[in-house]
Amino acid sequence: MLELEGNDLFNYNPQNPELGWTVKEDLPAGPYEWKGTRYKKDANGNYRFVYDGRDAQAGRNINTVGFEIPLAFISKEPATDRIVRMWGGSYVRKASSLVKAHAPSAVGSAWLGVKNMFTKELEFNNRDSDYNQVDHDGVPFSDAALSMRYDSHVGVANLKYLREFTTRFAHLGWGFGPSVSALGLPTCFDHSNSPVSVHKTYTLATQAFPRVKNCFFQKLNMPDNSWNTSGKAIPLRYTFEVFLPNLTAVDMDTNGTWPFGRRPEDQVATRFLATFLDMKQNCGATACNVETLNEPALWESAPIEPKTVPNPRFNDKAFLPEFPYLAEPWPEHTTYPKE
User: Fold this and answer.
1) Global confidence as pTM
2) Which pLDDT value is given to residue 335?
3) Could you tell me if residue 315 is inside a domain?
4) 216, 232 in Cβ contact below 8 A?
5) DSSP designation for 132
6) Which residues, 6+ apart, have CB-to-CB distance to 323 below 8 Å?
7) Which domain holds residue 244?
8) Is residue 259 one of the residues assigned to a domain?
9) Which of 52, 105, 136, 188 could make an SS bond with 214 (beta carbons 3.0 to 4.6 A apart)?
10) How many CB atoms lie within 10 A of CB 31?
11) CB 165 within 8 A of CB 147
12) Is residue 317 part of a domain?
């Protein structure tokens, strides 16, 4: 989260400010090791984020298939069944099925074979043997950050990985927790007052659990009441409820913002990071909440330069107020041949 003293591979270089953005250089000769003992500070005692909050995907289009489904289509009692749980899986065509089906019979027919492959043969089919299951995803960061995208494709039933979730969350806590404390913010993770992030893994969940228990069992505060559009007595969610089981649970009595769902404009990376804050204490003048780290006012008084939030605050183009909600696409950067 914060730059490390002596970590020249990733620290910001004012002599080469676009390194990693518009400038790419070869990796220098190793060995690669960090010999520092603390986070890097400038002459004024300020830290710097490793990532400066710029939108690395700005101006790029993201392929999306959007659906809008009436609640009555999936619930017999839409007036009372307010929780809709969602989960998805991804599949890719096996290269072996393509090679077997599309290899040209002769060198002279190579172009014809390629042309047919891109017009007919690459269409989807219903043969399971032609596809690999590459991802199961319900909750943002549940697979990527906590279960590390296990090859077993845990999918919805991730309760069997509760031990791994505990040890993995503790591993992440040793990375994020000391950074949070260095910035003067309270953390729910017990890092024993470590002055710098520590690379630490666990084999036993019994050793990791005391470090993470306050994070797992704390209520995730919301910045205001705008999420509760129904005015009903809806309890705040606990951290463990968000990730177990691996389902995006959309509360239809709310506006669907994370962790009560997932709205397109939600900066979930920042909100996930907020799960390491101590929600029972204040972050600045107000109680810590899921949007705390996305508020510029917090960073104005924090010992960090530049005064930016950790991740982009907004999408690079405003979402639409009606279906399909996604903004109009950007002009394509690359032109492809018509054939």
Assistant:
1) 0.82
2) 45
3) no
4) no
5) E
6) 66, 68
7) 80-85+142-298
8) yes
9) 188
10) 4
11) yes
12) no
Give the contacts of 179 (CB within 8 A, at least 6 positions apart): 1, 2, 39, 197
- CA 95, 97, 99, 105: dihedral to nearest 10 degrees? -170
- Per-residue pLDDT tens, the chain, 339 aa: give them: 899 998 888 889 889 888 877 888 888 888 888 888 999 999 999 999 988 788 878 888 888 888 888 999 988 898 888 899 888 877 888 877 776 555 554 444 444 444 454 445 566 778 888 888 776 667 777 766 676 666 555 667 677 778 888 999 999 999 999 999 999 999 999 999 999 999 999 999 999 999 999 999 999 999 999 999 999 999 999 999 888 888 888 999 999 999 999 888 899 889 999 999 999 999 988 999 999 999 999 999 999 999 989 888 888 888 888 888 888 888 865 444 444
* Type of residue found at 56: A
Length of the chain in residues, anyone? 339
Max intra-chain CA distance, the chain:
74
Sequence-separated (6 or more) residues with CB below 8 Å from residue 283: 185, 186, 277, 289, 292, 298
Asked whether 66 and 324 are in contact (CB, 8 A), the reply is: yes
What CA–CA distance (Å, rounded) separates 89 from 82? 24
- How do residues 147-199 score in pLDDT, each as one tens digit? 666 655 566 767 777 888 899 999 999 999 999 999 999 999 999 999 999 99
Give the integer Cα–Cα distance in Å for 179 and 338. 51
- Give yes or no: residues 210 and 248 share one domain: yes
328 within some domain: no
**E-assigned strand segments in the chain:** 83-86, 88-93, 131-137, 248-251, 282-283, 286-287
DSSP, collapsed to helix, strand or coil, labels residue 35 as coil
Determine contact, residues 289/279, Cβ cutoff 8 Å. yes
Q: Do 130 and 217 share a domain, yes or no? A: no
Q: Are residues 272 and 153 in the same domain?
A: yes
Backbone φ and ψ for 239, nearest 5 degrees, come out as -55, -45
The tally of domains found in the chain comes to: 2
- Please give the radius of gyration of the chain, using alpha carbons only, rounded to the nearest integer: 24
Burial class (CB in 10 A: 0-12, 13-18, 19+), 251: buried
How would you class 177 by CB atoms within 10 Å of its CB: exposed for 0-12, middle for 13-18, buried for 19 or more? buried
